[in-house]
Design a protein that fits this description.
4 domains, 5-stranded antiparallel beta sheet, 13 helices, globular
């Protein structure tokens, strides 16, 4: 497998000519998967020398310490909660009981905009990348490691510069006031999600009172959000544990703990409040929103028809509200179809994107929403930080960035997000197939996740991995596609294979080259 640059596309009589740039390796070697995917999607691990040099100069120039223009919050008990594998820490949380009995929740985000000045070489490269891209074997960062893993990372026991959202809340999660500030913080402890979960389960320890109070407060925030119609998709993702040869020896679903929801609610609240309050003015100033449009009627009709075929409650034959989608998913809580219906419903939804249009976020049921909390890994967040700083320093002045420039940034960030998702999915599919190739001949429990005229797709529940069963391999009858039932039906004995049905399958064969795995039905 090689990477080459075309120098002449030729014509009907002459060949295409190309220059060899890199020999990636054998496609049969799992250790080439990472290199192959980043080359396929033109992702670059290295930064241009001019960017590295600029960051090196900046590291020497910027002093992290007390500043009269910053609020000193180093006395606050600030913590970070991240995955055990986290490579950077750009968000931290504090919670303090006020004298009047209310709470002040602090969401502290790395002040990346101070380090990445608008129009610099680092800024141009960050915009070009749009976001960081994450794989099991490494990350393609948006910013050089000097920034993402050091100067802008909210490491424990080190002074760090932040932009903070300080929210005054009642005990039941009602917002009573919001302050924005550039701050100096010092993280007291780095937690993993698992550690927070275990501390809350044990019910004791130095950090238990703070974490227990945070859990109680975020439970109220979650309840209010859901009551307003926010749709909460809880679909596990496959996680890989690789051996020395790049082959997964285990695939397991990601876990969803109370600690995940605690952090999520804090970040959702901060993002919403920034979107609501920073662009205010007469006229309202241009802004970058995270929008999520309503699903189209055609997609909803298909979803409703599918639900009816499974004898499940459908959706109204009109434009639906997010509350109705939420109620549908809540009704699936104890159903064996839960994961399948959540996945299909998610596919029905419009794709979230960045835009200067204030169109709201259908899934979250927010009229205004943005991305602010991850400026290390998302360029849109970095721009929102710049707008927030201008809001603090020159609240009545026009933005430095014009509406047209923000439009272009929003389009670029959306496009780069799509590339990142496709790259991550391509990598995950490769690793899934590498794993399945080690399991050929073995049998597993699965669920039919898709039906087409030529056969059925089955997901192995244990690993969240899909394979295909051709209609020609179904034995015992002459099978055809039943369009009305969206199922495969036998002509003579009327046996049916339909979406959501549990089956036992054996892995027949795997093709890495074609990105395909074939299964056989063993039992229904």
């Amino acid at each position: 497998m090689v990477y080459a640059k075309v120098t002449d596309w030729g014509d009907g009589r002459s060949p295409i000519r190309a220059e060899l740039e890199e020999v990636i390796g054998s496609p049969d070697d799992p250790l080439t998967d990472f290199k192959m995917v980043i080359r396929q999607f033109e992702l670059k691990p290295e930064f241009p020398p001019v960017v590295e040099a600029e960051v090196a100069r900046l590291a020497e120039k910027v002093k992290i310490g007390p500043d009269p223009n910053r609020m000193d919050l180093r006395d606050l008990p600030v913590i970070t909660i991240d995955p055990a594998s986290a490579r950077d820490f750009d968000d931290a949380i504090s919670l303090e009981r006020l004298k009047d009995g209310q709470w002040e929740l602090g969401i502290h985000i790395a002040d990346v905009s101070l380090f990445v000045s608008q129009g610099s070489a680092t800024d141009a490269e960050a915009l070009k990348r749009g976001n960081s891209v994450y794989f099991t074997e490494g990350v393609i960062p948006m910013l050089p490691h000097t920034l993402s893993s050091d100067l802008c990372s909210l490491k424990p026991d080190e002074d760090r510069l932040a932009v903070s959202v300080l929210i005054k809340l009642t005990g039941d999660g009602v917002v009573r006031g919001v302050r924005f500030a550039r701050t100096l913080i010092r993280s007291s402890h780095r937690f993993t999600y698992r550690e927070v979960h275990e501390l809350l389960e044990q019910g004791k320890g130095k950090w238990y009172p703070l974490l227990a109070s945070l859990r109680k407060l975020t439970q109220h925030l979650y309840r209010v959000r859901v009551e307003q119609g926010s749709v909460d998709f809880d679909i596990p993702e496959p996680l890989f544990t690789l051996d020395h040869y790049g082959v997964p020896h285990m695939i397991h679903p990601s876990e969803r703990l109370d600690s995940h929801r605690m952090v999520e609610e804090c970040m959702l609240l901060a993002n919403r409040l920034v979107a609501e309050r920073v662009p205010r003015g007469k006229p309202r100033r241009p802004f970058i929103y995270r929008i999520h449009d309503e699903p189209g009627r055609e997609q909803l009709a298909k979803l409703s028809a599918l639900l009816q075929r499974l004898n499940l409650p459908g959706l109204p034959a009109r434009d639906v509200t997010s509350k109705e989608v939420r109620d549908l998913l809540l009704a699936m809580e104890d159903s064996p179809y839960r994961d399948l219906i959540e996945t299909i419903t998610l596919r029905t939804m419009a794709k979230a994107m960045y835009s200067t249009a204030k169109r709201g976020h259908f899934g979250l049921a927010f009229s205004e929403y943005t991305h602010f909390t991850s400026p290390i890994r998302r360029y849109a967040d970095l721009v929102v930080h710049r707008l927030l700083v201008e809001h603090l320093t020159a609240p009545k002045m026009p933005w430095t960035l014009s509406s047209e420039t923000l439009d272009k940034i929003a389009v670029q960030c959306t496009q780069r997000e799509i590339v990142a998702l496709e790259a991550e999915r391509s990598y995950s599919r490769l690793k899934e197939l590498r794993f399945l190739a080690t399991q050929v001949g073995n049998s597993f429990d699965g669920i039919i996740s898709g039906v087409i005229p030529t056969g059925i797709f089955v997901q192995i529940r244990e690993f969240l991995v899909d394979g295909f069963i051709s209609i020609e391999w179904l034995e015992g009858d002459d099978y055809t596609f039943d369009e009305r039932l969206y199922a495969i039906r036998g002509r003579r004995f009327n046996d049916v294979y339909q979406l959501g049905q549990e089956v036992r399958v054996m892995i027949r064969d795997v093709s890495i080259e074609k990105r395909f795995a074939n299964f056989l039905i063993m039992d229904t």
